[in-house]
Each structure stands twice: as C-alpha cells, then as structure tokens.
Amino acid sequence: MTNTWNDPNAHSEANKYQNPIPSRLLILQTVAKLINEGMAATAESLGMHFEILGDEEKFFALNNRLKAMLRDGQLIREDGIHFGIAPLPNIVRGKITSNAKGFGFLVLDDIPDLFVHEKQMRVVFDGDEVEAVANEFRGKPEARIINVIKRAHNEFIGILTSDDEGFMVQLGGANAHQPITLTDEDVAHWQAELGDSVKVAIIDFPTYQEYATGKITERLTGLNDRELIIETTVHNHGIPDEFSAAALEQAHDYKEPSATERKGRTDLRELPLITIDGEDARDFDDAVFAEKRAGGNYRVVVAIADVSHYVTPNSPLDVDAYERSTSVYFPHRVIPMLPEVLSNGLCSLNPKVDRLCMVADIKLSRAGNVTGYEFYPAVMHSKARLTYNQVNAFFDDPSNETLPDDLVRNPDVIKSVDTLHQIYQILDKKREERGAMAFETAETYIVFGEDGDIKDIKARTRGDAHKLIEEMMLLANTCAANFALKHELPVLYRNHDKPSDEKALRLSDYVKTFGLAFPSENPTHTDYQRIIAATKDRPDAVSIHSMLLRSMMQANYSADNIGHFGLAYDEYSHFTSPIRRYPDLMLHRAIKDFVTNKKGKKPLYKSLDEAGEHTSMTERRAEEASREVETWLKCHYMKRHVGNEFSATITTVTNFGVFVTLNELFIDGLIHISHLGEEYFTYDEKTQQLIGERGSVFGLGDLLTVQVAGVNMDLLQIDFALVEQLTQGGNAVSSKKKASKSRSEKAEKGKKSKKKARK
C-alpha cells in the first residue's frame, strides 16, 4: 500500500523501517494543524488523517510512536486522550553520577537531581558533563541526554576480562556499566593476562550501539589490593599525583635556612617550642609554647611553618600547589600538596634544627579571653618531637620514666606543657559555654600486615593531648581571621552556615521519635547542645549524632566571612596548616605582606571567589576519595568474613530493613527486612521501629548478633542477616529472638523447590 501522506522525513523512515509510518516531525506538524483548525488530536483522529486506522500493524506502530513522543517530552496528553504540543524542552546542563546497577542521575545546581535511565547511561561515564532535556516520564522527573559536553576522564583502571567477542576491561564501582573493549593485538603486545589490573586509554567513547574501545597504557602489576584501590580512586577522582619537573627542581634548589634568610625575623630559637603529633606523622607544621604572665594571665605562641617563603606566587611550586589545594590522606599513603622535600623537610618543624615560621603570639586573660595578639615571621628550633600518646601518658603520670628525655628531663618543656594543659581546660570550658558542637562520633583506623592486607580495624581514641593541640589551633585561626577582617586582607575565610530550614525540619521530625523537641527553623547552638546532652549516653548516640552532623551545611571557603556555626565563632579562618591547605598559604602571604610592609604579588587565581570555589571543590574531592577508599577496604575485609557472626547495634530503621554498626569494627551494613525473620513487619516512622505481626520489635539502639550474608564490591554494600536479638528498647530480651529460619535452611528449601520445578 502506498503512503498518502507527505512526510519531510519519508526517506529517513524508509531506510529505517520496512513498513514506515509517519515520522515524529510529521506527527508534530499534524497535531499542531488539527489543534489550530479546532479539531481533536487523538490517536484515532491521527490514524484517520494518515489513513492507517484500518491497518492494524501500522496503527499499533503509530500508537507506540505516540507513547515514545510523550515519554521524550515532544507531546503532552493532559486528559489521557487529546494530544498537544509540549512546550519547548528545558535544556539543562549538569554532571552525571552513575550507579553500579546501570542507572544514574544528572546532578544540577539549581533543581533536584534528574533520573537517567539505563539506556541513556550507555553513552556516558561517571562524572561526565552533559546537556540534557529535562522532562517527566510517568510522573517522575527524568533527563534525556542530548550532548556530552566534557568527559571526566580519558583513562580508566579496571580488570582484563574476555567473552565470546574478545577482550575487554571491566571497570568497577560507578562505571561498572561501561566495559571497554580491546583488540587481541593490544593484549598480546602488553603480555596481559586475564585478571590483570590495567590502565586503559579511550580510543572511541561508547555509543548507544557500541561499547567504548580503548588501548592499554600500563599494566598495574605488583600492587596489593590496598595500593590498587588507592591508585584507582586517585585516577577516577582526577587527583593530581605527579609534580611538574619545574616544581621539583624549585623545591630541591632550597637549602637549610641561612643567615640571610633569618635576617629580619624574630629569633625564637631559645623558646621551648615543641611539636605534638600522631605516631606516624612525618610533616610537622605547628609548634606550641605557653607561659604564665603577671596577674594569672597567659601567653600562647603558635608557630606555623613559613611555607610562603618557599612557595612563592606564580612559581612552578605555586601552580602545582594551587591545582591540588590540599593534601589527600589514604591509609598508608598521602598525596601531598607540596613535594616531600618541603613538606617533610624544610617546611616541617623537625626537632633540633632551625626552621622558618610564621607566629601567632597571643595573650589571654586568666578566663581564657584574648586580650591581644601579634603576627610576625620568625625562626625557631623545636626542642622536642612528641606524640599524642606520650603527652597523654605524661598527663596521667608525670613521673613515667619511659617517656622521652626531651619531655621529662627538660624543665622548660615540662613547664610549658603543664601551662598548655591548664589553658586547654579553660578554653574547653569556654567552648562549651559558647555552644560549640561536641558530637559522639566513631573514628577508626585500619591496621595492615606486612603484605599490605588488612589485619584489623580499631577505634581511634582522642585524649587531652589531641584536644589541647586542637584548641591552640582554633585560637590561632580565630586571631588570624580577626586580623584579616580588621585590615581587610585578600584572604579566604572558613565558613560554616547555619542549617537550612528544610534540614532543620527533617531533624525536628527525627528527634521527635526520642521525645525531644527541636525547632523546625532557625535552630541555635543551644538547640543542638540540648539534643547532644540528652542523647550522649544512649547506645545509639553515635547514630543520632551522625544525623545531627548531616543536618548541618557543608563548610567551605569564601572571600566573605559569615562565621562558623559548628564551632560557634563569628569569625574564622584556616591559618595553621599551609603545608597541606592552600587557603592557609593565602592567609600567611597576606598577613606577612602586611606586617612586613610589602606589596603582595599578583596571585594565580583571577579572583578570591574563584579561589574559594576551587579550594572548596578540591577539599570535597579529597574527602570523597578518602571515604571511598576506606569503605572499599572495609568491604574487602568483610568479604573474608562472610558467614561469620558479630555483635551489632541498630543505627537506622527504614521500611525495608535496619542498618546496623558492628560494635567492635565500626562497619555499617543492612539487614534487609527479609532477613529479620519469617513474619510481616510494619514500619512505625514515629517510633522508628519495625513491628512484626508475631510480636518482634526492632528499634534504634537494639543490640543484635548478626551474620555477614554478603558483600557487593561494586555497590560497596554489606548485607547482614539476623542471628538473634539481645536487647529491645534498652532491655534484655528474655527469650532470645532468633531469626525463624537460618540462611542455610532457606537455601536448602530453595534448592528443593528448584528440583521440584525441574521435575
């Protein structure tokens, strides 16, 4: 049968389909014509217009095309019958975030994220920037990708695999949906074997019809699991990990401080300044000293490595430092902001050597109020490199003979440490009075064996020595912020805004389940402190305080000071870590230029706003990468413990199960509702409980014994199964409630069902 319609895309349709129907363009033109003539535009009227209403096959195909045009936002049908022309598409631009299951989301700045269907994800990788049409499908916001603007990466790391069609590199995590094909010749050239980890460069990016093609650029042999996941994560997040030749040359050209470099600086080499850091720290960027003054007042000296002396504006070192803007910390590996010859050498306040520094010299009243301060460049000579454990042990027992001589046999150091401890106790009380947050959170560290494999995961404890150094750093940071504001210096401030009303409302609803009140808008420090105090002794305190933390805004760097809500400061900046944070280096330069009456050099960045956005982004990138590696390592560790049992606490209750934290290892995972027992559960949002029809109740803080049921390394998820419930609502369960059927019993039942089905 010959088509009777005049289709502008007839040729294209004929090439695509053996039995063509009207093209989308012709349908749009026809719908508009019918509406303009006051006629109904329905599937039947269109079928009549195109004279295919009686052709069952073509009319069926027309209906399918109309549905597709509704889905793609070309047509609208408000009453379910009559079609109309959809408004011009809303073109949006954003970044793709992928899920290992194949779907994804388009992350946008000003509107909620848009769902991206698995089919659309075929052409993109995680992190790609795209243009898309924002529309709705079945009432849900969705994005249809129309153009890839910028690729996040051109190289990837994955595992060499093969199928019937040849070799490919299987990526992990968010890009698990995108295998990259390789030629046999390329694999043979590199003598790569199945299961090898390889780095591959993209030749052709994927299309809707074809996978991406690539070529191997490196075989990653000889790396243990920890080293490989760190290498992969650094690569995937685009974290620079190699310094330019010019930056390395500049760093190596510097020598130990000379008399010329010391000239014009305050000489503090006789002052008993000391560093207090972790056991495995190698870069010491801060040293402290304190003494009592007349009338019960105090003097605190905080000396910070003078990085600005070495990393000069617009130099090769400055270019690399700004690009990184922060050091990135992984278990047993650091990607430093500065080359190690500086960060562990000339810019590290190592003991018994002269070092250039910038000093915050602060005067305090006996009540801990700042009565004056001054900043100046100096030269110092650290009298001791002490650890937190050593200083904590000294506080516990000053006569402990196992402590280093630099501490216990140096009266000047002892006197300073004792005074620092007194000041810390005063400042800690002031911290509480001003309403600074003090959350109960669990920090862990991973213990590795000599082979690089995980041996254990332990809780990290914080003693008075940690808190003492923290308070001295806060003191220097606030004085630096005040100085910068007073003199209108071109610096970045460390801002932490108050929670949004939306987050406050969510938190208000959450704490109501504990019988506590919290304002649904404009919460104060006092409101948070009240919740912290009321919940600190609960078994689920860590979970509750994590929710409090998540209700807050993310801290960032900005040219405008708005204060720090979490620390309860009206003005705050970062001054104390220029080795590993670029905003600190910016602040050092500005203060030193001012106090030495020098004109600052033009910086790399075009504006302070640009610098604030960049340094905030690099900080988030570093945190995400570190968190990703730690989560991967914990999941990898738990893979070896599938089937093992652990004690756990319920930290979150949902309508699909409960999330628990292992009490000894601080690892989180889900017990799906199907693993809680053979009964029907109802989710009570008010009480945050799952209530079973046979009387079982699971709520926040309940103690359980759980079994590791499985680990998904792509999704980085751990699944647990209930073994028994030990407490409910803080009370011991009289007759231990066990899961009605063990997983092995369920599996056996499943095998029998399959056998029966085959018969």
From TrEMBL:
Cellular component GO terms, alphabetical: cytosol
Annotated compartments: Cytoplasm
Region Disordered, residue ranges: 728-759
Broad class of enzyme this protein falls into: hydrolase
One Pfam family linked to the record: RNB
Principal subcellular localization: cytoplasm
Keywords: Cytoplasm, Exonuclease, Hydrolase, Nuclease, RNA-binding
Entry EC number(s): 3.1.13.1
Molecular function GO terms recorded: exoribonuclease II activity; RNA binding
Origin: domain of life: Bacteria
GO biological process: mRNA catabolic process
All copies of domain S1 motif, residue ranges: 643-723
Reactions the enzyme catalyzes: Exonucleolytic cleavage in the 3'- to 5'-direction to yield nucleoside 5'-phosphates
Record keyword rRNA-binding present: no
InterPro entries: CSD, CSD2, NA-bd_OB-fold, RNase_B_OB_dom, RNase_II/R, RNase_II/R_CS, RNase_II/RNase_R, RNase_R
Family designation: Belongs to the RNR ribonuclease family. RNase R subfamily.
Function: 3'-5' exoribonuclease that releases 5'-nucleoside monophosphates and is involved in maturation of structured RNAs.
HAMAP family: RNase_R
UniProt protein name: Ribonuclease R
Annotated organism of origin: Moraxella caviae
